[in-house]
Amino acid sequence: MGSPIVRKYGSHAVLMEWESIISPAIHDQVVGTAEFLKENHVDWILEIVPSYHSLVVYLKENVDLERYIGICQAIKVPINSGINSNKTWLVPTCYDSSFGYDLNAVSTSSELSPETIIKLHSEAQYRIYGMGFLPGFLYLGVLDEQIHTPRKSVVKQLVPKGSVGIGGKQTGIYPQKSPGGWNVIGRTPIELFNPTLKNPSPFSVGDSIQFTPISLEEYDEVLTEVQNGNYELKFVSND
């Protein structure tokens, strides 16, 4: 797997890059390194941004950048450190065609029935590899190869909040309404990002997501609970 390449990233940041593939083993190293830095150098750091196979460490202005690069180069995270023993969040998702308006197109592309697509999509657990694009947007992987579907060639101007989509070999959830080019196959009524809370997102990079199918009636029930502040998102601990 090898050690990451460490280099400057602007005037007050360090970029650490591992092999450029989507791999749970490499991502364990990314997340483990981020945790190590938080535990040992929190006074020097403004923000840490982990992704699939890289890590950006934004430093305070008084930190010696060259010295910090040396520190990052010396970090060794055990391969079997257990850093990924986090949570699997159970995300209720309605795959009704009124929400999953691209489900039939994915069905045609994959030559699978909508029911089979829903089964394949909801049975898997997806690691959270990163957050971005929108506040609270989760980059999840990896999809079953049978339902890999390219992003749309024309971006839709308004994708509804909570939409669950497929983009290439990834899946994701739109935390707010926004433009988007992923193939929407369902919708969740839960809140993925609430800026009024101390922790705006319940999720962490390294956690996992599993989509749990619900009916239209169940969607409305959960949505009402969410709006009333009574819904508690369920998870399974992997510890």
Provide structural commentary.
This protein has 239 residues and is an alpha+beta fold. It has two domains: 5-74, Gyrase A, domain 2; 87-237, Beta Barrel (Cyclophilin), CATH 2.40.100.10. It has five helices and 14 strands. The protein has helices at 24-41, 65-74, 103-110, 114-123, 216-227, and strands spanning 5-8, 13-17, 45-50, 54-59, 87-94, 126-131, 138-141, 156-159, 163-167, 170-173, 178-180, 183-187, 208-214, 234-237. The chain has a five-stranded mixed β-sheet with strand order 7-6-13-5-14, with helices on both faces. A four-stranded antiparallel β-sheet has the order 1-2-4-3, with helices on one face. A hairpin with a 4-residue loop joins strand 1 and strand 2 (13-17). The longest helix is centred in the N-terminal third of the chain and has 18 residues, at 24-41. The radius of gyration is 19 Å and the shape is globular. The model has no long low-confidence stretch (mean pLDDT 91).
